[in-house]
C-alpha cells in the first residue's frame, strides 16, 4: 500500500485523529478542540497518510532538541495494524533530522508493547528510574 509521511494535518485528518483517539482506552475522551490545541503545541508531528489522504498513523514529539524528547500518541488506525505502519512511524522518529542527536527520547507504553519499542533501542527500567506523574484535577473543567 502506498503512503506518505506528513508533518502537519489537514482539518479532515484532525477529525480522523480524534476518531482514532476515541477507539483507545488512553485517549477516548479527547475532543477536537483540545486535540487542535495539542497539535499546535507539539514540536514534531509525524503522520502517515494513504493515497486518498486518509490518516493511517500518527505520533508526536515534545522536545528541547538537545537533551530530552518524549514520544507521545503512537497510534495506527485499526484496519492498518499488523502491516508494519507502527514500525514505519518509529523509523521516522528515530531518523528525523531534528531528533537524531537528541540525547534521550522517552515514551509511555503498555508492558506488552515493550518488545516493539526495544527494536529501536528503547529500554525499560533504565538505571532504576521510575516514572512519576501528577494528574491535574482541574483538567476536566
What does this entry look like structurally?
The structure is a single chain. The model has no long low-confidence stretch (mean pLDDT 94). The protein has a 5-stranded mixed β-sheet with strand order 1-2-3-4-5. By secondary structure, the chain is an alpha+beta fold. The chain contains 4 helices and 5 strands. The chain has helices spanning 11-22, 32-41, 85-94, 114-118; strands at residues 3-6, 44-50, 55-63, 68-76, 104-107.
Q: Order of strands across the biggest sheet?
A: 1-2-3-4-5
How many DSSP H or I helices? Answer: 4
Quote the beta fraction.
Answer: 15-25%
Query: Average pLDDT, to the nearest integer?
Result: 94
How much helix is in the residues? 25-40%
* Derived structural class: alpha+beta
Note the main sheet: 5 strands, mixed
Strand tally is 5
Order of helices and strands: EHHEEEHEH
Q: What shape does the CA trace take?
A: globular
User: Which stretches are low in confidence, meaning pLDDT under 50 for 5 or more residues running?
Assistant: none
The value of Rg in angstroms is 15 Å
The CA-CA distance between the termini, in Å, is: 42 Å
Could you write a compact summary of the structure shown?
By secondary structure, the protein is an alpha+beta fold. It has helices spanning 11-22, 32-41, 85-94, 114-118; strands spanning 3-6, 44-50, 55-63, 68-76, 104-107.
Amino acid at each position: 500500500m502506498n503512503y506518505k509521511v506528513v508533518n502537519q494535518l489537514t482539518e479532515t485528518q484532525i477529525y480522523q485523529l480524534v476518531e482514532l483517539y476515541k477507539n483507545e482506552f488512553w485517549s477516548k475522551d479527547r475532543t477536537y478542540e483540545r486535540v487542535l490545541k495539542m497539535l499546535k503545541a507539539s514540536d514534531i508531528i509525524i503522520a502517515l497518510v494513504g493515497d486518498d489522504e486518509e490518516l493511517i498513523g500518527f505520533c508526536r514529539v515534545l522536545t528541547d532538541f538537545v537533551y530530552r524528547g518524549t514520544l507521545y500518541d503512537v497510534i495506527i488506525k485499526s484496519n492498518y495494524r499488523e502491516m508494519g505502519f507502527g514500525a514505519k512511524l518509529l523509523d521516522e522518529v528515530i531518523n528525523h533530522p531534528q531528533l537524531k542527536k537528541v540525547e534521550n527520547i522517552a515514551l509511555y507504553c503498555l508492558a506488552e508493547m515493550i518488545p516493539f519499542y526495544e527494536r529501536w533501542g528503547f529500554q525499560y527500567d533504565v538505571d532504576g528510574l521510575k516514572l512519576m506523574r501528577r494528574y491535574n484535577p482541574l483538567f476536566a473543567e
